[in-house]
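Progress against Task 2.4 (sequence-to-structure conversion) is shown through the following example record, which the project officer requested during the mid-term review.
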Amino acid sequence: MKQDITLIDKNFLLGSSFEAAGLKWYSVHDEPIQLRGLAVHQGNDFNRLPLELLPACSDGVRSLSWHTAGGRVRFMTDSPRIALRCESRFGGFMSHMPITGSAGIDAYVNGVFRAAIRPGNGNGGFFEGEFRTRTESAQIELNLPLYNGITQLYIGVEEGAQVCAPRPYAIDTPVVYYGSSITQGGCASRPGNSYQGHITRWLDCDHINLGFSGNAKGEDSMAQYIAALRMSAFVYDYDHNAPTPEHLLNTHSRFFSIIRRAQPELPVIFISRPDCEANPAETPLRREIIKATYDCAVEEGDKKVWFIDGFDLFGSEDRDACTVDGSHPNDLGFYRMAQTILPVLKQALSIR
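Structure tokens generated for the chain above:
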């Protein structure tokens, strides 16, 4: 195993439970550790969008872009013990979402969940934790907070252990998701339980999460940014954040057109909202607006488009058990969403 990492300054350990733990500590920025899903990860800046794009974004998107939903830290190691020390960008907590999901980091070892490391209830600042790999060679994936950001993240391994580049994803070109708070991950109990987290592990594919809670409104500036991204497929479902059906009608087809002009062969999946019972008066109209974009593309000969009826996402049984508040999915809701989206995405990516 090749090791090519710069040991970091240990001053950040002062006052922590790991101060005298005998571990070697590395910055998340160091090679060959990889950070996926973020446009910016340098110094204390971890952002889902390029910083130069932020002035063109709404205040809400600009603020939420510092939330690290979809960010993943990846590496391999032979260390039997791994410690993390992280500094949150924001304090506080969410009343309807576990802090393990909103502000915590969950760790997967060889694709299996191993630990949830999170701040104390309502506390910002540094938080820390550790876990055992239980294997001689471990592929580590750390999922970053869904509704918070980070300014520092350090990884500790046992003395003499090596840290190497991770195995590449089977699908290394990311699937890009754009949408509402549900897309961002609210209200999964852990970052890895978002529907994108499940799909990424099942397909072994990279992804970018551009969910902006309450603020994904189909803006042209966001469509133009997404249209320029390198991606294997595009999934979008900003239905919830369109203030009215009229707004959705005026933006949905245009948003798609901007992306389609830039990438004629890109697989695109349209999704309507899953919590159909939350607004039974408007949901059918919104569904038809989204379906109309799909139907128009098909009529024009587009063979790279798919539509998923949001009603199917939670399944037909015990739908009321799939959310925390009648709208935002819990872990069961996200799992069912992932199961429903998976076969469509596999078809779009030509995976058997």
